[in-house]
Amino acid sequence: ILANFFVVSGILLGYEALLQFSGKRLRQFPNYILLAIFVCLHFYWTFIQPDLTARNINLSITHFIICLQCAWFSLFKIGKNLRRCTVPIGIVFVGVCVISVLRIVVSLRELHSNADFFAPNIFSFFVLVSYQIIIIFLTHSVVLMYSRRLMLDLEFEQRKYLKAFRSAPYVMLLTRLSDGKIIEANEGMSVISGYSISELLGKTTVELQLWLQEETRTLIVNEIITKGRISGKEINFRRKSGEIFTGLFSSETILVNDEKHLISSIADITDLKKVAEEREQLICELQDAIEKVKTLTGLLPTCAYCKKIKDENGNWKQMEVYIRDHSNADFSHGICPECLKKVMEKVDV
After folding, report:
1. Which of 104, 187, 243, 324 is the most exposed place for a label (fewest CB within 10 A)?
2. Nearest 10 degrees: Cα torsion 236, 186, 253, 268
3. Mean pLDDT over all residues of the chain?
4. Are residues 135 and 186 in the same domain?
5. Per DSSP, what are the bridge partners of residue 254?
6. Are 109 and 71 contained in the same domain?
7. 109 and 189 fall within a common domain
8. Within 13 A of 335's CA, how many CA atoms are on the CB side?
9. What is the C-alpha separation between 89 and 141, in angstroms, rounded?
10. Which of 113, 132, 163 is the last residue of a domain?
11. How far apart are the C-alpha atoms of 59 and 267, rounded to whole Å?
12. pLDDT digits (tens, 9 = 90+) for 174-199
């Protein structure tokens, strides 16, 4: 009983593992009830009413029910992306189902016969060999299933990396650290540098004269080798046309086929630099203008009769003189209509 219980429990745990492999959750309560019924029947036909044929039928039916679920899930219910991983193990479970059906049919035929169960039996030998072969294929299928899953995950990561690499709006470069040769470049690099992708691949940044100063490249590479990465370094580069542009350079070492490479990004900040410089210039101009402006504030001591203003030294000055000295304003003298009328009346008199 204990041995058969472990066999059935092992198949049930295999079904659980298959569900976890796919990321799906299904209710296993009916299978636990099935396991309990199997144990009870096996106990009955072992100790209460011993019957080897009934025990074989009980075991085969339980195998068939659980393995049929495993085969159906592996071949049909699992997602399309993972199905190519689980097809081999599904075929193995179909094989177990076929053997279980054959055992049920043969056992039913022998149910009322007086067969000697200890005598050599070709079918029993066939079942024993089949189970051994199935165990071998099952082990191989499990290894193959997980290997294919790892390959699928790796392909997904590669596609994700390539999409991010190629769709980035800024420069993305993959270069070999040993000689600086460009292995991969995105469209952003082509747009910013002026070189086509075919012109970039297989060439070094030195051959393309992308670095404005070779000494800068040497210092950057040495820093990357020492620290493993560099981030947000403001560097001047040269386009294909010879035009100089400023970029924020970031780079990090990665291993590709056991060889060190650099994955680098360059964000063109030339326009931002120009805007920042223009803003700084405007701020300086405004500051200069503010410094040149003279303003009159506070309470001014003024004579009520002659309208002279007392300055900071205690001297009384004409209003025009005081305002001219303390601001950028100046005066031009004329005569208003009212004063003109008064003057003309005095002249007539």
Report:
1. 243
2. 20
3. 86
4. no
5. 261
6. yes
7. no
8. 8
9. 5
10. 163
11. 68
12. 999 888 899 999 998 988 889 998 99
